[in-house]
Amino acid sequence: GTKPAEGALSVLLQSAIKTKDQKGAIVALQKMVEYYPKPERWRDLLVLMRDSAGRSANDEEYTLNIYRLMRETGTLKDGNEFVEMATIALKRGSPGEASDAIKRGTAANALSTGGNKTASDVLRKSAEVAEKADRATLAKFETEAKSAKTGEADVRLGQAFLSYDQPDKALEALQRGIQKGSLRNPDEAQILLGMTYLKLGQKAEAQAAFSAGKGQDQKFGDLAQLWAIYARS
To answer: Could you state, in chain order, the average pLDDT of each consecutive group of 10 residues for the chain (233 residues)?
Structure first.
């Protein structure tokens, strides 16, 4: 019930690594970022969580959410990661996030050579076209989402507003969607709500939103708790 010593957590981590206990390594790193947060530990943890989940099409939504936390913690570094984040965001109807990922990768000089440069140039153009079309239909989508009986459209609307740096509108849409219910992924909705509160500078509300995740999907439940840890720090 007390704060564990940093050295003890290091021993726990190294023991898990040497015995090839991936779950044990994740647990040790989770405790490290909670009690002794450092950028390299956040990166090690999130990369391990991403890779342990797999990289199939079924895991894309989770991978995108991992990258969102890596972006927030400043640990999105590799060119392949910027490209993958942009690719998934574009496929999942979030061109604003796709554009942002390419911009960040370019600014970090992570997309200047080889296949990443070619892929990022294609993604940039595709994201620009998709974003223009998305912004043009956003008002119509907002009207449709408000009139919907279930909350999924409101959550997607909130995600869009958040990606376009409109957190006030995102908050309204996400709160409405969560209240309506019948969501495909309630845990992701809570993560998006917490991200919105962070964008608005409301840390206490963000922590509450992250902690409200029901853990219906264990991976997303764990991720929501990591967001709560990050919000506290």
So the answer is: 95 97 96 96 96 76 96 95 96 96 96 90 96 97 98 98 98 98 94 98 96 83 94 90
Euclidean distance between CA atoms 29 and 9, whole angstroms: 8
> Are 115 and 84 within 8 A, CB to CB?
no
**Using CB atoms within 10 A of its CB, is residue 102 exposed (0-12), middle (13-18) or buried (19+)?**
buried
216 DSSP assignment: S
